[in-house]
Amino acid sequence: MRAYLASSIGVACAAALVLPLALPASAAPAPSLTSAAPAGPAGEVSVPGSTQSLPLHALPAERAGAAAQGLTARDVRPFSLVGVVWDDPDTELHGSVQVRTRATGSGAWSDWQSVDTHNHDHAADPGTPERDSGTVRGSTAPLWVGASDGIEVRVRAEAPRSGAAPAALPRGMRIELVDPGDEPVIELAGEDTAQGPEVPEGNDTGTTSGQVPLPALTAEESAASAVNAELVPLGAAEIPELTKEATEAAFADQFGDEAMVAKPYIGPRPRIITRKGWGADERLRERNFVYTKSVQAAFVHHSATGNNYSCKQAPSVLRSIYRYHVKSSGWRDFGYNFAVDKCGNIYEGRAGGVAKPVLGAHTLGFNSNSMGIAVLGTYSQSNPPSAAVTGVARLTAWKLGLYGKNPRAKTTLTSGGGNRYKKGAKVKLNVISGHRDGFVTDCPGARLYGKLGTARSASAKYQGR
Q1: Are residues 131 and 191 in the same domain?
Q2: pTM for the whole structure
Q3: Are the C-beta atoms of residues 262 and 35 closer than 8 Å to each other?
């Protein structure tokens, strides 16, 4: 199959839909938390960023019969994101997690902030090598707190019901403090983009090329970049956008006119910042890529990391989530296939190729034949910026179009098992669904969930329907 490259000066390139020659999920090796990372002087893994893992201790209970653990206020090494993990991934944390952090520089302590405890619904499906690797842990959602050097934690179990035994907390709880490491150099859409229209006219995103000269690639970086080689040169920091006409022409050129007749509704390819662009350390993830058969649906999530970030900080948020997913939660890679920030910038998530059906760990029970899109932020009570909704629409119009899917239609998926549908159940879902459609959860937050109708209509419009 021929490859078509696009340069940063706007040469049109093919929208790749290359079915990968890779091991199926059942043949993939178990995840490694230190995959191919070089050892430091004391045998420690030397990678950008760091994770401090501090065990929690018993605290005086404030409610009769309720268990409490945490940490008193203390100095720690610099970090920007926090989360709590525990030993057994099948154990849920029934209670609350709150943290206070001290800002680096000013020394000011924040108010108590709540951490979303329901992260068990974002995970690899039961029975997959990733889920059964033995490295997976129970975990809360991560919370972005910004540059900090002090921490205080309190975890409280639910108060027991009258006559019931005292509620217990999971064993082996630890607070994870993640430092994302240095920022990569790439230009992003500005904060004012967040106020843009939900259904903009034309294809102009108002962004400019952020590609910069790149150093020599490691073997792991080369592998993660090579899966996008039909779209951009090796080591590219971004995949430039194409007009709808250029996207369709490239698809027809690569697969033939008959393929274009069969799939006439492909939206314009949006600009996508690659893993290289947001600074993913490829030595952290499991080495191989795992694919599913197709992409029949898109599940929209919120990251539940809070809204206290700027779009310039989004790459740091992504690197922090990535490290938390792999090093703290024990997953093989970043859980979502894509991420969208509040300014509408779109990011490549789990490695394997943006046009390919990469198996993610985003919607427990429905990771097969789907993709997961995380909108960075928490949208249970806050409205998502219109630029973020537009980013979801642009991404789905292109990616779902490659697989012949109508964003306003329904599709049927087979459940891998979860709390809403039993394993093996055939479930009819919207082609663009919210996480809560496949699992009992608040995700993607009520306010973002309420915008999915807008995203479906805009996505279909971009496809020319």
Answers
A1: no
A2: 0.84
A3: no
